[in-house]
Amino acid sequence: MERTLAILKPDCIKKNLIAKVLDKIIEADFKIVSIKMIKLSKESARGFYEVHKERSFYNDLVEYMSSGFCVPIVLEKENAVADFRKLIGATDPTKAEEGTIRKLYAKDMQENIVHGSDSVENAIIEINHFFSRNELLG
Ligand code: CMP
């Protein structure tokens, strides 16, 4: 079994889409290992997206991700990382496949509803960013 980190982003929460997105995730056979609702500090958002710190969109991304509540979720399934990326679709919703979560609900590259880890190694780092050991048991 493999794990990945999903984050329902502030636009997902503001548009009241938590249940709809969770339903798509569960329908696709992912098991929810752990879930919480938090408001990221700027420092935490900066750390989470540090790989993008040289990109032009980094400051906007940090502002946006710390602008409201997020719902980080640890998901488990065989091939979880790749299957979740497929379920959410391309970062740019205009390029996302029909039926994907971003095609259905995302507004643009920034307000794109959901994050998914891009590799098994990063999934471990990202899960540890949000969840402590005792939140990952069971
Ligand atoms: P996410 O999957 O969370 O990973 C990095 C995020 O940076 C991405 O989703 C987008 O929200 C954001 N992002 C990536 N590329 C751009 C871009 N060109 N302009 C604005 N935001 C971007």
Hetero groups in this structure are:
adenosine-3',5'-cyclic-monophosphate
* Morphology call: globular
What structural class do you assign from the helix and strand content?
alpha+beta
Q: Assign the CATH topology.
A: Alpha-Beta Plaits
Question: How many domains make up the 3D coordinates?
Answer: 1
Please give the count of helices: 7
The CATH H-level superfamily is Nucleoside diphosphate kinase-like domain
Radius of gyration computed on alpha carbons: 14 Å
Low-confidence stretches: none
Q: Roughly what fraction of the amino acids lie in strands? A: 15-25%
Describe the structure in brief.
With 138 residues, the protein is of the alpha+beta class.
Explain this structure.
There is one protein chain. By secondary structure, the chain is of the alpha+beta class. The protein has a single domain, classed as Alpha-Beta Plaits (2-Layer Sandwich), CATH 3.30.70.141. Helix content is 40%, strand content 19%. The chain contains 7 helices and 5 strands. It has helices at residues 10-14, 18-27, 42-48, 58-65, 80-88, 101-105, 120-130; strands at residues 2-8, 31-35, 38-39, 69-77, 114-116. Strands 1, 2, 3, 4 and 5 form a 5-stranded antiparallel β-sheet that branches. The chain is globular, with a radius of gyration of 14 Å. It starts with a strand and ends in an 8-residue tail after the last helix. The model has no long low-confidence stretch (mean pLDDT 97). Adenosine-3',5'-cyclic-monophosphate is lined by residues 52, 57, 61, 91, 109-110, 112, 115.
